[in-house]
Amino acid sequence: MFKNIKQLTPFSLSLLAIAFIMSISQSTMTTTYPILMKNFNVNASTVQWLTTGFMVAMTLVMPLSPWLLDNVPLRKLLNSIVGIFLIGTFIAMVTPNFTGIIIGRLLEGLAVGALFPTFQSVIIENTDKSKRGIAMGVVGLVMGSALAVGPIISGIVLQWISWRALFILFFVILSILIVILQSKIQNTHEMNPAPFDWFSAVTLLGFGGILYDVSMIPTTGVGVAWWVILILSISLLIIFIVRQMKLVQPFLDLKVFRYQGYVPAMLLTGLSYSGLIIATVLMPLFYQKIFNFTPLWSGLLMVPAAVFLSQLNPKSGVMLSKIGLKKLVYIGMTMMFVGYALLGVFGAASWFACLVAAMLLEGGNAFIMMPAITAANNALPKKLVSHGTAIITTMRQVIGAGSVVIASILITTINANDSFINALLLTSRWFLIVPVVGLLLTIRIKSNE
């Protein structure tokens, strides 16, 4: 693992360090929900906006990343992204009311949404094709580990300190990090200035509208307002797509879809992210609701899966160049299938079975997500890498959010007619369809990809 990390440039390592700290914020807040509901006297649907708003904000900004890279020098762009995140974190840290936390989380989401496709594009652009698998394996280590350790950190902090300590932790570490790494930041991306297309920017609200609609199904259901938002969002996206095809310098260059191998790889990244994020949703419920572990212990029991993921990610990058994407994905999807099956059959009988299942779900992600992103971008010319990455990260977010919503709906619906234990078991079995779809999709990938 450390050998692979040493192969990256100091600039790439700087990007990874910043991304790691900001990525952790994605998955830390769910553990604080009960505390915040009590402290601010808000209900479950309201507190859920800490996650829903964050995801919507991320999705709105991700498609803008190619324009930002082409028009804003990297040093200025990275400092601005971190600055927005710090402002949001500070607001959430000191606010006396719940609205302040929402505003803070929205700003954090905007920053993370701009950072994710940007730092991945820059690392890919600055790495030879022969070494991209290794580089993206390390990126997968950072992103996957951050998502996995988020609940662990929040569980430990909340056991002894206030929820505000989570924001203080992010603020202090990131502030120190961005100051220390200033000398490492380089303007490596080739600038390609273009006017900012406000009309396209407005139509991008369609992405956020769809994600908002999907996220609100468990709390508001599907009513007239839901359908209105969905139709308007789809209409905006259709306008966006038509406009991008006409512009000389589009926000998102949709020509990436013409390159063979890009679309299957893009969809595979979303499916693999689904397995990772569902593991972080289901496992705390198994540990706390079935085996009555404390939040601290349920967080600590996620450590083996996080370590397993961190060990496999760099290895998968090396294996990509040796055995190809197709065989890697078969391995990863098989691991995910066994993980869901293990949860669905033995999840209520043994906490150890849950631990092994989490390791398989997260470990399977290591063999799919970053290798698929690498393969997708290797199919593109360098000038389209930022556009390809922006589309992948946006679609991954939508698929991941959709998976969380489906899990919530399944658990709630089944629990209404059965026990909570059976709701978790049956939900795990339903999610077997994800790796099955992944395996079917893999058939379309050529063996040499």
SSE-based structural type: mainly alpha
User: Percent of residues in beta strands?
Assistant: under 5%
Number of extended strands: 0
The radius of gyration over CA amounts to 21 Å
Spatial gap, N to C terminus = 24 Å
User: What profile does the largest beta sheet have?
Assistant: none
- How many separate helices? 21
GO molecular function, one term: transmembrane transporter activity
Keywords: Membrane, Transmembrane, Transmembrane helix, Transport
Membrane topology: Multi-pass membrane protein
Transmembrane segments: 46-65, 77-95, 134-157, 163-182, 194-212, 224-242, 262-287, 293-312, 324-343, 349-373, 394-414, 420-443
Short description:
This is MFS transporter. By secondary structure, the chain is an all-alpha fold.
Write a structural description.
The chain is mostly helical and 449 residues long. It has a single domain, classed as Growth Hormone, Chain: A (Up-down Bundle), CATH 1.20.1250. It is 80% helix and 0% strand. The protein contains 21 helices and no strands. The chain has helices at residues 2-6, 10-28, 33-40, 44-47, 49-61, 65-71, 74-94, 98-125, 129-160, 164-180, 198-203, 205-220, 224-246, 262-290, 295-300, 303-346, 351-366, 369-378, 385-417, 420-430, 433-442. Helix 14 runs antiparallel to helix 18 (369-378). The two termini are 24 Å apart. Residues 1-6 have low confidence and may be disordered.
